[in-house]
Amino acid sequence: MRSILIIGAGRSASSLIRYLLSKSESENLHLIVADLSLALAEKKTQQHPNATPIALDIFNIAERKEAIEKASIVISMLPAHLHIEIAKDCIQFRKHLVTASYISDAMQALDEEAKENNLIFMNEIGLDPGIDHMSAMKVIDEIRVKGGKMLLFESFCGGLVAPESDNNLWNYKFTWAPRNVVLAGQGGAAKFVQEGTYKYIPYCNLFRRTEFLEVEGYGKFEAYSNRDSLKYRSIYGLDDILTLYRGTIRRVGYSKAWNMFVQLGMTDDSYVMEDSENMSYRQFVNSFLPYHPTDSVEIKTRLILKIDQDDIMWDKLLELDLFNPDKKVNLSNATPAQILEKILSDSWTLEPDDKDMIVMYHKFGYEINGEKKQIDSKMVCIGDDQTYTAMAKTVGLPVAMATLLILNGKITTPGVQLPINKEVYVPILKELEEYGVVFNEQTMPYFGYNPDLF
Length: 454
Hints:
Blueprint: E1 2-7, H1 14-22, H2 24-27, E2 29-35, H3 38-45, E3 51-55, H4 61-70, E4 73-76, H5 83-92, E5 96-99, H6 105-108, H7 111-116, E6 120-122, H8 131-145, E7 149-161, H9 178-182, E8 190-194, E9 197-201, E10 210-215, E11 219-225, H10 232-235, E12 243-251, H11 254-264, H12 281-286, H13 297-305, H14 312-319, H15 336-348, E13 356-368, E14 371-382, H16 390-407, E15 415-417, H17 422-432, E16 440-444
Parallel strand pairs: 1-2, 1-4, 2-3, 4-5, 5-6, 6-15, 7-12
Antiparallel strand pairs: 7-13, 8-9, 10-11, 11-12, 13-14, 14-16
Helix pairs in contact: 1-16, 8-17, 16-17
C-alpha cells in the first residue's frame, strides 16, 4: 500500500484525514497520522483499518527521519515555522511534500534541490492561501485566453460564524486561531495599489477603512485590508494591473468595534503587564485609561472612546463583561494582546452545536475589445459540526486532493510551488464542488474608480 505520512492531527486535519481514508481502499492508501498527542491521532483515525496513529515529536530527529523515510509522500499540517526541517528530510529521502502554509524564504531556498531530485513541494494549498489562488487563477487565465487585459483584482476571505449560530452583538466567534485574530493587521502598514497609485493604511487606521460586500442569501459584509497585497502581482502575473487589493471579511460593524481595542492599546503584544495574573478584567481596562478621582471606569471608557449613551458600541463592550471586577485574568507575564484574547475567548468560543462559515469573494475587472467588464466570484461554505468545520474542510480538502494527484502522477511539475498552474487548480476546483465548495460567477458592470478622486 502507498503510505501517506500526515504530521499534525489538529483541527485543520479532520476533513483531510476523513477524505483520504474514504479513498484508501480504491487508491490503495495507508495513512500514518502522527502527532505529539497519540490520543489526538487516535481520535482522528477512529480505528480505521487503513490508518495507524503514532506519537511523534518532530524535534526527535531520529524518530522524525524514520517516519519520513518510510512514507510515499508527506503532509505537514504543523505551524509554518516547523515545516523546514521536515522539508529538508524530504529532500534527503526523496519524498514529495504538501503543506497549507505560505512559502517561507527558507522553504523557497530548497527549490533548486527539490527540482534536482524531481520532488514536488506543494505549499499554500489550503483555504487562504490555497483556494483563493486557485479560484483566482482560473478566472484570470480564462480572461487572458479570451484576449482580455486585467485592470482590477480584489480578493476577500473570512472565517465567520454561520448565520444560525450568530447570536452575539459582534456577529463573530473564533473559528480559527484566536491569537491571529487579535494580532491581525500588525507588523507594518497595509499596502495595495489603486488605479495605479500605491496606497498605505497604517495599523492605527486599518479598521476604519473598510469596503462593503453583498453576498446573495447571506447579506452584507465588510472587509479591511490585508497587510501586503502587492506581493501577489508577480505571483498572478499582474505586474501592470491598476488595482490590486486583498482583504479580510467580517460582518458590518465589527471593524468599527474592534478599533476600540486598537485605540486603547489592548491589541499590543510588545510588552508584559505587571502582575497580570492577579489583574481583574476591570483593572485591565482601567490600565489604559487616565486617572480621575471620581469618574468610574465606565465613564472614562466612554469619554476616551467618544461613545454616546445610545451607541451600540457600548453594548458590545458590556456583552464581553469587560468591566467585571471579580473575573481574574489568571495569566502570568501576559501581554495586553494575550489578556484580550483570554477575555474574548469567554464570549467568542464556539458552542458545541455552533457551525462556522467561510466566505470568499473575488472581483475581476478587465478590458476586452475596448470595453471594460467585471466578473464577481463568490463562495460560501458552512461547517458540519465542531470537528468537520468549514475551516477544516476548506483547508484540509485541497491538501488531500493535491496529495492524491501528486501520488497518481497527475501533478508533475517539480519544485517549491503554490497552486497557480492548471494541472493543479482545474481538477481540485472541480472536485471541491462535490463537497459544497462552489464559486458562483456573475458578470457585473465594471466597478473601477473615478481617476479624479483616487
